[in-house]
Amino acid sequence: MCNNNSSLVSGDQTAVNHDQKIAELVVDNSRCADGEVDGLTEAFTGLEFLSMVNVGLSSLAKLPSLPKLHKLELSDNNLCGSLGTLSEKCPNLTYLNLSGNKIKELSNVEALQNLKSLQSLDLFNCDITSLEDYRDSVFELLPQVTYLDGFDQEDNEAPDSEADDEEEDGAAPAGDYDEDEDEDGSEGGGAGPNRADQDDDDDEEEFAEEEEEEQPGVQREKRKRDVDDEGEDDGDEDD
């Protein structure tokens, strides 16, 4: 009996250790009961990215402690307050998406002042965006934020890290060419022979062949003239 209990404890500890190593977790559209989201536990202490889109959250009071979390997706929920919990549970957040929630007043986001590392905040489709001087007010309230709804204070768009990664891992840069085509000179940047030079070489070969064909006739004419000249010389001697 003791052995069985030891085995269960060992199995649970292995699962916990595995969860601690996970850096990204997506539980979008999961069920939420009393602020607890299915699939998210206290064991995920190593998370750096967490997405909880459309899970019915109305409070973050039961959010587990995630000290390594940098990016948090909370769009399309029912949040309007309790954002102060984020600075306690996720103190190192750099990106926070609250779009599609019930945030109406500046006071709702005031608690985000304690997120000192926060650089990017999204409030798309929240009622707060209809406030007069909304953008200027949020930037003033949260001076640590560089990008609000994807743009900075000068309306410069935030860089897309995913697109940058695709460019780095994508196709070869312009100017590359097919090595097979380049070897036979049909394509590429000058590795094969020049077309005009090749045509000149072909013309010279044809001209040489024609000269060879005509050469025997020329020699026969020369020999004939030589024989005729010798005959004339013999005739002069006889005279």
Description of the structure:
- The chain is an alpha/beta fold and 239 residues long.
- The chain has two domains: 11-169, Leucine-rich repeat, LRR (right-handed beta-alpha superhelix) (Alpha-Beta Horseshoe), CATH 3.80.10.10; 179-234.
- The protein contains seven helices and eight strands; from the N terminus they run αβββββαβαβαβααα.
- The protein has helices spanning 2-21, 84-89, 106-109, 134-141, 161-169, 179-183, 195-238; strands spanning 24-26, 32-33, 36-37, 49-51, 71-73, 95-97, 120-122, 147-148.
- The strands form two sheets. It has a six-stranded parallel beta sheet, with helices on one face. The chain has a two-stranded antiparallel sheet with strand order 2-3.
- It starts with a helix and ends with a helix.
- The model is unreliable at 6-11, 171-179 and 185-192 (pLDDT under 50).
- One of its GO terms (molecular function) is histone binding.
- InterPro entries: AN32, Leu-rich_rpt, LRR_dom_sf, U2A'_phosphoprotein32A_C.
- One of its GO terms (cellular component) is nucleus.
List the keywords.
phosphatase inhibitor activity, histone binding, U2A'_phosphoprotein32A_C, 9% strand, AN32, six-stranded parallel sheet, alpha/beta, two-stranded antiparallel sheet, single chain, 239 residues, 7 helices, Leucine-rich repeat, LRR (right-handed beta-alpha superhelix)
Query: Percent of residues in beta strands?
Result: 5-15%
Provide the CATH architecture of the largest domain: Alpha-Beta Horseshoe
CATH superfamily of the largest domain: Ribonuclease Inhibitor
Quaternary structure type: single chain
CATH topology name of the largest domain: Leucine-rich repeat, LRR (right-handed beta-alpha superhelix)
How much helix, percentage-wise, in residues? Answer: 40-55%
Shape: extended
Number of helices: 7
Largest sheet: 6 strands, parallel
Number of strands: 8
Mean pLDDT: 77
How many structural domains? 2
